[in-house]
Write a structure and sequence with these properties.
The complex is a heterodimer of chains A (675) and B (149). Chain A is of the alpha+beta class. Chain A contains 21 helices and 13 strands. Chain A is 62% helix and 13% strand. In chain A, the strands form 3 sheets. In chain A, strands 5, 6, 7, 8, 9 and 10 form a 6-stranded antiparallel beta sheet that branches. Chain A starts with a helix and ends with a helix. The relative contact order of chain A is 0.08. Classes of the chains: A alpha+beta (675), B alpha+beta (149).
Chain lengths: 675, 149
């Protein structure tokens, strides 16, 4: 059966190649017959890759231990759910997963746009198939998931597999990779449309309108994926961190930063026909960062000492990236005249300008993360010393960047297009501004001495206040006009312009996350070895050890400390941090005991146990919950933005009325007054 | 064009200050990745610089004491004695035969004092192609329809 799988992948490889040739030739020679066969080829690739994936999943679930991939990533006693998840648990399987998602997206694109985008589609297919060809090359020739185990060319099976890393046997970690991959792969579609419209010099911004939902859905997947990874780290790894600036984490956040910048800057192109080159660059950069992210997570280029040479897929990724980037640069330079801007920037205090700075900052942070992540590789190349930068470096750089972005989140949406009058500035910012200063002062007087936390929390107040004001103003106007209550008015308002108010909700989610991050300097830690009857203190909590127990299941052995927890002397409940030892993988993992409240989390990790004693790590993490609440708000806001607006939006440009563009520009002095 | 000048100045200020933070923080947070042979060659430098050294945890070398854990890292038949004195408990993946990265400084007696230890199961994350991972039977090697050695 593994032969059928390998054959299916090989056939898919050939047909993807055919799809490229047929689509391009058909489009250039105007042969509809050929382009149609190109479309069908995309569907055929989907069928074949699905077959291969189905075979792999079937082998994983039934435990065919002749296959190397099955033996390395599952074992008999593993729950079926995790056997299925082993599909993306290792390198070979996850590359096949990539291919499968890409072929699925390709098929969806063919079905949804074959009638509306006859001119673009052949090129879109060609580009998607080229990417597919690359991943199928890896699946076929470099990292095939269908290798079987053999002794002297006789196929053999092993009695039991090695199992999935127990740290990964956690629900969030099971769905985290698919979400990230849905995001990674999804950016291929807007990228393909962008390139197709560049190649054909398609008039207008149709590629942006067509792919807006794609981009948003993709971005949603990616945000969810990043946050799931973060939540997993917090809940599973046992030390309560949610972000370490680990290369693998950075790989997931890099395309997210690019995608976020892109989502903002396309609005400039939609509304004003500006930043066209920039958008091309951004979507390409985002897509290549997705490929790069896959490469980083799958090749181990930076995570271990001198691992680069060991990775067989590394050089393929590097070549693909280099060729792709070169091709895109050439294409953009060759068609610069098609990407001419239709309007100019007018004022520093304008919506355009805030978009520009938002983009600048997002890109700068993206570059900083990339630089920091690749620092060991770069220094090894150029100075023969492998030097890494730790989380301290990233935080020093990213915290100010993040705070500045947070401020822009509050300012930008309330600046008017073109330029902002003093009146409107006062109307929008007077009260939030004063309130922000009051909050900052109150925090300082209240005894808070961490500047970043004070700044962060007061900015959070500022942004939240501007968002609430926007909802309040809009809703009360609607409420008065149509005599409905405030809550229905808010819903009506949001429904009328889901993009705008959904966007505000996303911003609100970001604000709540910042609230959560602001609690970080106030973490309390306590580590201690305790016996039955002993007490460990952390912050205001007393943890009294009632019992130390242990037990055994087929999959793992476990040890538990039963703790009587009291806060400021009053009893609040029992907590049971546990440690499991997974037999197949011969590895221990902690099941953290967590008491989550909106103001703080009590987090207890059973770190190690020896006869009659247990080492406990107890932490108090203030405000952490708000990160997850923020993430959920962000997801909700994005979903709202995906709902079609009740009032049909026209994408007509804001027109410059009465003045020519030259006159519309204002002398510098005047702007200074306004600012 | 004067308005563009203003944009340029603002951007220059932002990018400039970011670059300044970035370069200024490098010296405080850079860690040298070395192998055990490279660490031996570094001599005096190794006791000054922050170093992260990688190797396999020698079997049966882990000794857990009060407030410290002692173990040996092995690479290319060279052994490095390590004392871990950090506060946090060692990661779950830290065990005999695991690949470990120890961050800290070398003392004059040649003992490496680690403040942090990262570990991963040698065979779990990235099995080397063509070599059977530890958990599988010794002579069994992966082969396949499209297998290249």
């Amino acid at each position: 059966m593994e032969n059928v799988g390998a054959l299916a992948v090989l056939l898919a490889f050939c047909i993807a190649l055919y799809a490229i040739v047929a689509s391009v030739t058909g489009r250039l020679k105007k042969k509809p017959f050929l382009t149609l066969s190109g479309e069908r080829a995309v569907l055929a690739v989907w069928v074949l890759v699905s077959t291969a994936a189905g075979i792999l999943v079937y082998s994983l679930m039934t435990g065919d231990y002749r296959m190397a991939y099955v033996a390395q990533h599952t074992n008999r006693d593993m729950p079926l759910f995790y056997k299925f998840a082993a599909w993306w648990g290792g390198q070979e399987g996850s590359l096949l997963f990539w291919s499968w998602l890409l072929s699925t997206y390709g098929a969806i694109v063919v079905f949804t746009t074959r009638r509306t985008h006859r001119n673009l589609l052949p090129w879109v297919i060609a580009i998607l198939s080229t990417i597919q060809l690359f991943f199928l090359t890896l699946n076929t020739f470099v990292a095939s998931p269908f290798q079987v185990l053999a002794v002297d060319k006789v196929v053999t099976s092993v009695a039991d597999g090695m199992g999935l890393n127990p740290l990964l046997q956690y629900w969030a970690m099971v769905i985290h990779p698919p979400f990230l991959y849905l995001g990674y792969v999804g950016f291929a579609v807007p990228f393909a449309f962008a390139m197709a419209s560049l190649i054909t010099k398609a008039p207008g911004e149709s590629w942006i309108h067509t792919t807006r939902r794609w981009t948003l859905v993709t971005w949603l997947f990616q945000s969810t994926g990043v946050m799931l990874g973060s939540a997993w780290a917090y809940h599973v790894l046992g030390w309560g961190g949610y972000w370490m600036w680990d290369p693998v984490e950075n790989a997931s956040v890099l395309p997210w930063l690019g995608g976020t910048a892109f989502l903002h800057s396309v609005m400039m192109q939609e509304k004003k026909g500006m930043m066209k080159v920039w958008n091309m660059v951004l979507i390409s950069a985002t897509f290549f960062l997705c490929i790069f992210g896959t490469f980083l997570t799958r090749s181990g280029i930076v995570s271990s000492v001198h691992a680069f040479a060991e990775s067989p897929i590394g050089k393929y990724f590097v070549s693909f990236l280099a060729l792709g980037i070169a091709a895109v640069i050439w294409l953009i330079l060759d068609r610069l005249d098609y990407l001419k801007s239709e309007a100019e920037l007018e004022s520093v205090v304008s919506r355009e300008s805030s978009f520009l700075f938002n983009n600048l900052i997002l890109l700068a942070s993206c570059f900083a993360v990339l630089w920091g992540t690749l620092f060991p590789v770069l220094t090894e190349k150029f100075s023969n010393e492998k030097i890494s930068l730790d989380a301290v470096w990233f935080n020093r750089l990213m915290v100010p960047i993040g705070l500045f972005l947070l401020l822009l989140t509050g300012l930008g949406p309330l600046f008017a297009w073109r330029r902002t009058s003093i009146d409107s500035l006062r109307k929008n910012f007077q009260w939030p501004g004063i309130g922000t200063l009051v909050v900052a002062a109150a925090l300082f007087i209240g005894g808070m001495r961490y500047p970043y936390s004070i700044i962060s929390l007061s900015f959070c107040f500022f942004v939240a206040a501007t968002i609430v004001m926007e909802f309040f103003r809009g809703a009360s106007a609607i409420g008065e006009k149509s005599h409905i209550g405030f809550v229905p008015a808010v819903i009506e308002l949001t429904h009328r312009n889901t993009r705008r108010y959904g966007g505000y909700l996303v911003h609100m989610g970001i604000v709540l996350m910042f609230v959560g991050w602001s609690g970080h300097p106030f973490n309390v830690t306590s580590v201690g070895e305790v016996e039955k009857g002993g007490v460990l203190k952390v912050g205001a909590y007393d943890l009294k050890v009632v019992d130390l127990t242990q037990g055994d299941t087929p999959n793992y052995e476990w040890e538990t400390a039963v703790l009587d927890v009291s806060k400021n002397g009053s009893h609040i409940g029992t907590m049971e941090p546990t440690r499991r030892f997974y037999k197949a993988a011969q590895q221990a993992t902690a099941i953290v005991a967590l008491r989550s409240r909106l103001n703080e989390d009590l987090y207890i990790n059973y770190a190690a146990g020896t006869a009659g004693k247990a080492t406990l790590q107890a932490y108090v993490f203030p405000l952490v919950d708000w990160i997850w609440i923020g993430a959920v708000t962000l997801i909700f806001g994005t979903l709202v933005a995906l709902v079609p607006s009740k009032v049909a939006r026209s994408y007509r440009r804001t027109e410059v009325v009465g003045v020519t563009q030259k006159e519309a520009s204002i002398p510098a002095g005047e702007v200074k007054n306004e600012a | 064009m004067r308005k563009y000048g203003k944009f340029a100045v603002l951007m220059a200020i932002i990018i400039g200050s970011l670059l300044w933070i970035a370069t200024a923080s490098v010296s405080g947070s850079k860690t040298y990745y070395v192998t055990i042979p490279e660490l031996r060659k570094m001599g005096n430098e190794a006791s000054v610089k922050r170093v992260r050294v990688g190797g396999d945890v020698q079997s049966n070398s882990i000794v857990r004491g009060a407030g410290f854990v002692r173990f040996n890292l092995v690479q290319d038949k060279l052994t490095l004695p390590v004392v871990y004195e950090g506060r946090d408990a060692l990661p779950d993946t830290f065990k005999d035969g695991a690949q470990a990265l120890a961050g800290g400084r070398l003392d004059s007696a040649g003992v490496f004092h680690a403040q942090e230890v990262q570990a991963k199961c040698a065979s779990k994350y990235a099995p080397k192609p063509g070599v059977a991972p530890d958990g599988l039977q010794k002579q069994v090697k992966p082969a396949s329809t499209s297998y290249k050695s």
